[in-house]
Structures are given as C-alpha cells and as structure tokens.
Design goal:
By secondary structure, this protein is mostly helical. It contains four helices and no strands.
C-alpha cells in the first residue's frame, strides 16, 4: 500500500491513465482510504476540466494584449 507521498507522485500519471494495472490498484486503494489525497485528486480532476474548457474558448483580443504586455525577455 502506498503512502501520501507516493500517491502524490502517482496522481498525474493516474489522471493521464499512464500507470500499470498494479499501480492503479495501489493508487485507488490509497484514494479510497485517505480523504486528503482523495480531495487532492478531485481538485486536480476539476482543474483539468476547467483548463480544457478554457483552452477551447477563444481569447478576447484585449486579454491577449494584457498577457503580451506581461512577457519578459529572457
């Protein structure tokens, strides 16, 4: 069984469906038992949903200008 630190490392690959079946089982077992990690999982899942939605909407020209003004030269 994994601990919270291991679960944190599994979280992104779990959401991306990149884990082995054994790793999925380990992560899901921990998520079922740990409310802290379960909340983190739900947060990441909702964040991804919002990012996908925002990325599909066209950006207003004035927002593009504001973002362009924030760029710094490297």
């Amino acid at each position: 069984m994994c601990d919270c630190q291991e679960c944190e490392q599994f979280l992104q690959p779990y959401l991306d469906r990149q884990l082995t079946q054994a790793e999925v089982l380990e992560a899901e077992t921990h998520l079922d038992e740990c409310s802290y990690c379960r909340r983190a999982y739900h947060f990441e899942e909702k964040l991804r949903m919002y990012v996908r939605r925002a990325a599909s909407e066209p950006m207003r020209p004035e927002l593009k200008q504001k973002l362009a003004a924030l760029r710094i030269s490297l």
